[in-house]
# Entry
Amino acid sequence: MAQALMNYLDPGAIVLGLKAATDQDVIRILADRLESLGYIKPSFAEAVIAREARLPTGLPLGGKNNVAVPHTDPVHVLKPGLALATLVDPVPFSNMEDADEKLEVKVVFLMALNDKDMQIEMLQEIAGTIQSPEVIAALIASKSVEDVSRLLG
Amino acid sequence: MAKQKTVLFACGTGIATSTVVAHAVEDAMKERGIRFNSRQCKATEVAGQIDDVDLVVTTTQLPKDLGKPVITTLAFLTGIGKADALDKIEAALRD
# Structure
């Protein structure tokens, strides 16, 4: 399977082995990276956090290695981009299909989106990637941006 | 030939996730020889769009008692339970 997620991921917005206490911490840390790289406006992080409370983005993968894909409206975005964090200890995100259920998330893809077609492509690539438990396990085990690039390139 | 049924795909914003799901379902149903009309909307818009719809497929929680069959599934994003979700959709479309 093609793993073309590296086409969207900025190496400067990949944070591996992050220690964070909450979903909000993860979102703020990744948003800081995207902001300093010129992808988003300063309003982005809080908008993502507010959306997550209403429309959560946790995706259950049937085990402990769940994924979340937080994002928000195009108005907070300057250009499309993707940030990635792998977490040392899982952080709870609410389940997209059942907001009352918390998922233990180990991988977070923070999406900066302002183009409908690219948004769909990016989400499709993420879906293709997370449907392989081997790839997710290898992603969590990745120690360097080069590892991630080999895996998702 | 029976009239094509209409499936309403819903997600939080009615754009990205529902498109990914709609494409996946369209491709899989084509392989099973089933065609249907496809529409998308936000979860909050479903109640107002339900009248001519035969089936709703959603990735996010919807109001209860919409009066039409609803399949809530993340299978087309996560891959988990995909065959089961497709069987349910096929059954609803052949019904």
Strands of chain A lie at 9-18, 58-59, 66-68, 81-95, 98-112.
